[in-house]
Amino acid sequence: MIEDFKAQIKHIKETDPAATNTISIFLLYPSIHACFWHCIAHKLHKMKFIFLARALSQFARFLTGIEIHPGAVIGKGLFIDHGMGVVIGETSIIGEHVKLFHGVTLGGVGTEKGKRHPTVKDYAVIGAGAKVLGNVTIGKHAKVGANAVVLQDVPDYATAIGVPARIKEANNDIKKQ
Description:
The protein is α/β, with parallel strands linked by helices and 177 residues long. The chain is built from 5 helices and 15 strands. It has helices at residues 2-15, 22-28, 30-46, 50-64, 172-176, and strands at residues 66-68, 73-74, 79-81, 86-88, 93-94, 99-101, 105-107, 119-120, 125-126, 131-133, 137-138, 143-144, 149-150, 159-161, 166-168. It has a 6-stranded mixed β-sheet with strand order 3-6-9-12-14-15. It has a 5-stranded parallel β-sheet with strand order 1-4-7-10-13. The two termini are 29 Å apart. The model has no long low-confidence stretch (mean pLDDT 92).
């Protein structure tokens, strides 16, 4: 758990020009607090203490404005910039070093059982207000533009923009790095 928070703080320092130092990030960034509470709630959820896990996640939502279902799987280094209004659904899977901006929803589109929320792969960036809905995959290093509504997979290194989102060509400059 400590290593996850070190990775998260490092990711914030690298990607947020407003981040001044480790102490201010630890104390003042709701992303850190939401992920801390999610880590505990996720462990409780896996131990089948569903009510307690949900209650803790709702408490964290009250404190941070970020709603992360305790069933969601989150990789290390997640940065939720500004955070307010972010919703991460139960079967969401988030890779490492992902960046989400405020108002992002990783949501479902129906009441079916099983995997019904998005998978976001490593180093993806999802812009403010974007809605990623259903069992879709956002590829590695992919970007989703602000306020886009994504209903289909976004390939690695590609960009999705618009309502409904259209896939722009993959960024070959990033692939070469």
